[in-house]
Design brief:
Elements lengths: L3 E3 H8 L3 H9 L5 E4 L2 E5 L3 H13 L4 H32 L1
Antiparallel strand pairs: 1-3, 2-3
Length: 95
């Protein structure tokens, strides 16, 4: 439980409603863990959550927009990884 952050603490810190986190979790962007009646987010997800909060607050992107942006970022990451792997394979054939 040491790697878990209570959602009410995050709500107070980022000045967002609890529904912000539950809606993002419902979209599958991260997992909310419930222990007894308390809800937590794994501290490993904090970097991504901070990006989501900034998008929402500074750019006024709604929950659906955040979902789209993060799905596109994941696809870009996958394509970059695939491109790197293909470049490495090509180097093998060139030498």
């Amino acid at each position: 439980m040491e790697n878990l952050i209570p959602i009410p603490v995050l709500c107070a810190h980022y000045e967002v409603e609890l529904s912000f986190f539950t809606n993002l979790s419902d979209m599958g962007l991260f997992e909310i863990k419930t222990i007894k009646t308390n809800q937590y987010i794994d501290s490993d997800a904090i970097y991504e959550i901070e990006k989501m909060v900034r998008m929402h607050q500074e750019l006024e992107v709604n929950i659906e927009g955040i979902d789209i942006v993060f799905n596109l970022l994941q696809k870009i990451d996958a394509l970059q990884n695939e491109l790197t792997a293909l470049k490495n394979r090509l180097r093998l054939y060139e030498s």
